[in-house]
Amino acid sequence: MAGYIGKIEPFDESVENWTSYVERLEEYFKVNKVDNNMKVSALLSLVGGKTYSLLRNLTLPDKPADKNFDDIVKLLKEHLSPKPSIIAERFRFHRRQQQEGESVNEYVAVLKKLAEHCEFGENLNDTLRDRLVCGLKNEQIQKQLLSKSTLTLPKATEIAVAMETASKDASELRHQQVSGVNKLFQKQKPFYRKEKPNPSTCYRCNNKGHAPAECYFIDTVCRKCGIKGHIQRACKSKIKKKSKPQKQKKHVRNVNQTGDSDTDSSNFEEGIEQLSLYTVKKNADAPILLQVKVNGKEIKMELDTGSAVSVMSQEKFHEIFGKRPLKPCKIKLRTYSGEKLKPLGVMDVTVEHNGQSALCQLYVVEKGTTNLFGRSWLKEIKIDWQNIKNIMHVSTVKTDGKMKVQSILRKYSTVFNDGIGKVEGIKATLHMRNDAKPMFCKARPVPYALKPKVEEEIKNLENMGILQKVETSEWATPIVAVPKKNGKVRICGDFKVTINPQLNVDQYPLPKIEDIFASLSGGQHFSKIDLRQAYLHMEMAEESKQFLTINTHKGLYRYNRLLYGVASAPPIWQRTMDQILQGIPGVQCILDDMIVTGHSESEHLENLENVLQRLQKFGLRANLEKCEFFKDSVQYCGHEVTKEGIWKTKDKIDAVLKTPAPENVTQLRSFLGLVNYYNRFLPNLASELKPLHKLLEKGQKWIWTEIQQTAFAKAKNLITSDTVLTHYDPNKELFLACDASPYGIGAVLSHRFDDDTERPIAYISKSLTKAERNYAQIDKEALSIYWAVKKFYPYLFGRKFTLITDHQPLTSIFHPSKSIPITSASRLQRYAVFLSGFTYDIMYRNTKKHTNADALSRSPIKSNDDKEEDAVDIFNVSQIENLPVTAKEISKETQRNATLSRVYQYAITGWNKPSDDTLMPFYTRRNEITIQNGCLMWGIRVIIPTKFQQKVLDTLHASHLGVVKMKGIARSYVWWPGIDKEIENITKSCDGCSKIQNNPSKVSLHPWEWPSSPWQRIHIDFAGPFLNQNFLIMVDAHSKWPEVFPMKKITTSTTIEILRTVFARNGIPEQIVSDNGPQFTSREFEKFTKLNGIKHFRSAPYHPATNGLAERFVQTFKRSMKSMKNEEMSLNKKIANFLLLYRNAPHSITNETPAKLFHGRNLRTCLDLIRPDTRKTVENKIMQSVFEKKGVIREFDKEDHVIVRDYRNHDKWINGQVKSKLGPLTYEVTTESGSVWKRHADQIRDSNAKQTCLNTDPELETVENENSENAQQSYAPQNESAEEPLTNEARRYPIRARKRTKRLIEEY
Q1: CA angle 522–525–527, rounded 5-degree value
Q2: Quick one: pLDDT band at residue 1107, thresholds 50, 70, 90?
Q3: What is the maximum alpha-carbon separation in the chain?
Q4: What is the rounded distance in angstroms from the CA atom of residue 980 to the CA atom of residue 444?
Q5: How far apart are the first and last CA of the chain?
Q6: What sign does the CA torsion over 1203, 1205, 1208, 1212 have?
Q7: Exposed, middle or buried by CB within 10 Å (0-12, 13-18, 19+), for 1177?
Q8: DSSP letters along 843-877, please?
């Protein structure tokens, strides 16, 4: 581009972002005075081929050149630089601290960059100032800034830079020895270099007089090794200098390798050097595991001093943190064997350990099994090296048992592989009842937001062979999509509405707990093995697969494996496991949990190896993370198992014993409700509780003294004593009462005895976490059920029990035989799917009679466990983040909105039927409304406050997708009363949408009135061009009588001529109905109808249904003509045959033939010859009787010589010879001239004198003459006087010459 100032390279995303490129481009246009009309061409020429190809795909079907400059820039910006989440951007901004070696100016620049998408508005400078002061690493600078009463961002930056520069200058001028801490390094041997450092020499620059931490070259990158923190002359690396040093910018660190690759390690040399004496690289040694809290989550990490960074696999990362975004990183990692490893990204995390907290970086790699605690974290977190040393020492003196366990695990490592195995040689069969009827449920609608995830999961299950596509099935179960923590979904079949009620459940009992523990007595060590997704290991028999068909939006799929939620699954699986483990001593199994022991170490190891061998043989997979091996004690079936014996876990009564003292009357009344619930088992209870009852008296001031505390403690001891508690009995009815309060949940597991009394087996309670306290009340009540069932799992699974709740809507949502409601909140659906694996009934109990569980929920024991983030919470947050407004804004406006604030309060505390009509749409959905991060949600849809509704509508309408698709998207994300109507209105009011809309849905047709007589109203239309012809069609509305006329030209005049001809035969109709063809809209046709008094109706343009009678006949006529295409006959003959049969066929509307209604009779056809003719029979009999009365009939034989009557000349008779006999009285005669005449016996005389005369009456017989054109019917007398010809005067009628009639139909 000669003559232009500057140069613009093609856009490269790896060099700069699109916004920056556009800014440079606009300046380039300014300096070179590029005209606005030329900007598009210049842009397309400069961006490069790669970006142009992308742009072309984005603008299809249009070309990029057809767009204007601003549209192209906006389109590429939306694709290349999509707007990030404000919440996430602000989170990154506020957690950014000044990094090691990062200058103040660099830190300020990074903060400004991070604030780009935070939308701080007018508060930007103040926010940047606050983050700068709080994030500075230098404490002296931080103190100086905090001492200023008025401080702006420029002033803070100026002071911080000045103090930083002064610190560096002072360290260069100073000539002091290293501090006492650094002197300590003289006695140590840093692991990254072999020689001892000179105490007066800085290892960063090899100069003296300053400490390495104050070295000027602390941020310099070495030209030899490419590592930041020292210069070339001080480099201790053995790497040779490469010819192209600019390629050494990326750092390469080693993972699981002890070496000298990372020289920037001076800040934690002390502990590392001591640890190097106790290296953990021998395969026989157990790893050193540290319990670390990362972002509030407890994680076990292996201490690895050979790893320069801390590393976690992608699978573990998603399991613990969900689908959190990762920052890109440019470093490369190398394994111990030298293989290069590219991290997927890095995340800044808060690490806590031993009372310390630091902001560190966690690298995520694609594969791996162990979380590594590397040297980068050791810089920030101090480790108790003495304790580590002791642990490692213990590991070197462990018994052979531990080592043998490791050897056994390595030998059978395939048992612990990822994925799902398959039981070899055993298949599951489902047995249905004899009266079972197939149930086919239609597919439930899947929200747009979940469709891609559901489809991905279906594809994964197909690839694993668990699902199989089928075309048809008599059985079909709807699915429920349950969100998982890693952002994916789990597909679950709602079998409780299809096959479960019709199953003959296998009667195979689960092992009794007492039998299990009896077999474990005498064990010294214990191992637990947990199977991975146990039921999916079991392949289904071919005949049973049909029952496990699920119906999805992608069609029907059939499970090939046994599923959780099928009523027969527990007994089938238990029987299978008993078969697999049969004959191995010291082993017990309940479903997917196995416990192994032995009377000695060798016996235990032998049993363990036998179990793993069996699992490997049958193709089962175990979850190594949940397994425990060679332990002195384990938790199993709610008991603690040790070599000393079996101990019940103490937490069964902790919920009561650890109940805190009441702080008000409400809590005290709740506790007394629990005690009084079991008062029948506690004599003298009233006297024991008197000090507590006294506080409930009216006007009594609340004072909690030692007397009340004593009575309170005694009451707790009473209800946890053996007088009240009972032991678990598998033969007795089991009841689980659950309840929730605003701050806690509680449950009581009880037996019901024959006298209808309930005695508790165990109590449990826990306080709600901060997130759980924000749940809607229905969610809290559901959580109490879900949590209690999980806690009492060993008692409940595999046997029937009764759930008791005081929240009536849950009895429907969790009903064991009802389908899971589609619009239920995701959390409730997830709980319902979990409960579907149990056999239970659910019942409602009034709160006043529910005091046992109610008291536990109102006085819960404090839970110290940090609740893991719920998968549903993660999913709901992602739903909110996809909206054009933030969760914070929605939450804030929800509280301000008069209606939604009341809905929010009702959702928290419980609903009463409101009198305000504006609340009724919410009241009808009260069982499906939940709360997430302060936002109201209906199912998975966020309830939007009025203020943001228009903004959401504009976002939905931005792409003009149409009403249906807008509603579909809205139903995945948002809701408010009347949203469907508002979507319709915004589409109707949009000019662009209105002009391209499809036709509205067709209204039901209004039928024409049926005329009372034929030919009153006729419908006419043209058919064709068809068969090289056009056809004028006429149909009578009364009789459906059709007329068809082929036409070469379809002009108005020819049309009128045909109509005139038909009207002459059938009469003039009152009304004509036609379409808007030019023949019918012309002035000539209008004049024709007006002069004949015909009312002409025309259909609406492009709406042929108005003239439907003619249109339907046209279709029938065309179909018939096409069918006769290959028949050899003329077109007129085809039309005639069609009309004859159509007019004689009963019509579907009238149930009569058109001929019968039009003419009052059916038309005679060749088909009439088939049926017997009564009339013909009668006529024959009459003729026979006539002949019998008149005597002998005159007959002639063939070749008899006769004279026949001649009607041509004056001679009446002419000689001839009989040729043949045509009928009883009709003959063919050959005349003397050679002609063949047809004559009646009355017209023939024997040429001889002999003849037999008949006494005939000329008025009774008819003589036909069909041979000549002059023939006529006559009656010939048989006497002589009749032989004289008659003159015209003597005749009654004159002789007429008739032409032969030309018949239209010659054959049928």
Answers
A1: 120
A2: confident
A3: 178
A4: 20
A5: 88
A6: positive
A7: exposed
A8: EE--GGG-HHHHHHHHSPPPP-SPPPPPHHHHHHH
Contact in structure between 928 and 824 (CB atoms under 8 Å): yes
pLDDT at 949: 86
**What average pLDDT does this structure show over 378-385?**
81
**The two three-digit tokens of residue 244, written as one number:** 């192209």
Share of the chain above pLDDT 90, in %: 3
Over its C-alpha atoms, the chain yields an Rg (Å, rounded) of 51
Angle CA(376)–CA(379)–CA(381) in degrees, nearest 5? 105
Q: What is the pLDDT of residues 432-451, one digit of tens each?
A: 888 888 889 888 877 766 78
Instruction: Look at residue 770 and give its three-state secondary structure.
Output: helix
Long-range contacts, 551-555 (Cβ 8 Å, 24+) = 551/440, 551/441, 551/442, 551/443, 551/476, 551/477, 551/478, 551/479, 552/443, 552/446, 552/454, 552/458, 552/479, 552/491, 553/443, 553/445, 553/446, 553/451, 553/454, 554/455, 554/458, 555/469, 555/471
Q: Is the pLDDT of residue 374 over 80?
A: yes
Region 882-910: mean pLDDT is: 81
Of the chain, the percentage scoring pLDDT greater than 70 comes to: 80
Contact yes or no for 469/556 (Cβ under 8 A): yes
Contact 792, 832 (CB under 8 A): no
Query: Rounded to whole angstroms, what are the CA distances from 202 to 231, 235, 549, 915?
Result: 11, 12, 73, 80
Q: How does DSSP assign 360-420, residue by residue?
A: EEEEEESS-SS-EE-HHHHTTS---HHHHHHHHHHHHT--HHHHHHHHHHHHTGGGG-SS-
Spatial strand order of the sheet with 1201-1205 comes to 1236-1240, 1226-1231, 1213-1221, 1201-1205, 1244-1246
432: phi then psi, degrees, rounded to nearest 5: -95, 155
Instruction: Identify the band that residue 385 occupies on the pLDDT scale cut at 50, 70 and 90.
Output: confident
Q: Would you say the pTM of this structure is higher than 0.85?
A: no
User: In angstroms, rounded to a whole number, what is the distance separating the alpha carbons of residues 872 and 740?
Assistant: 19
Rounded-to-integer distance, Cα 1105 and Cα 1008, Å = 11
8 Å CB contact between 344 and 314: yes
Q: What is the side-by-side strand order in the sheet with 1042-1047? A: 1042-1047, 1029-1036, 1017-1026, 1071-1074, 1095-1098
Among 577, 573, 575, 584, CA closest to 611? 584
- Report whether pLDDT(537) > 70: yes
CA 923/CA 845 separation, integer angstroms: 22
Q: Are 537 and 621 spatial neighbours (Cβ–Cβ below 8 Å)?
A: yes
Strand partners, 303: 373
Looking at the predicted structure, is the pLDDT value of residue 1258 above 50?
Answer: no
In this predicted structure, which of 255-269, 603-617, 982-996 has the lowest mean pLDDT?
255-269
- Give the contacts of 722 (CB within 8 A, at least 6 positions apart): none
**What pLDDT score does 830 carry?**
79
Over range 193-198, report the average pLDDT.
42
Among 16, 9, 15, 74, smallest CA distance to 46 is for: 9
Q: Is 1061 helix (H, G, I), strand (E, B) or coil?
A: helix
Which pLDDT value is given to residue 730?
A: 74
For residue 1284, is pLDDT > 60?
A: no
Average pLDDT, the chain: 77
**DSSP characters for 821-833?**
PTTS-HHHHHHHH
CA distance 902 to 908: 10
Residue 278 scores a pLDDT above 70:
no
| Residue with tokens 């959780």, as numbered in its chain | 564
Phi and psi torsions of 746, nearest 5°? -150, 160
Cis omega (within 30 of 0) for bond into 1046 = no
pLDDT at 823: 62
State the pLDDT at residue 192: 39
Q: Which residue in the block uniquely carries the two structure tokens 């400059």?
A: 69
The pLDDT, as a whole number, for residue 549 is: 92
DSSP 18-52: HHHHHHHHHHHHHHTT--GGGHHHHHHHHS-HHHH
Structural contact between residues 585 and 607, judged by C-beta atoms closer than 8 angstroms: yes
Q: Which of 373, 423, 426, 470 is nearest to 619 (CA)?
A: 423
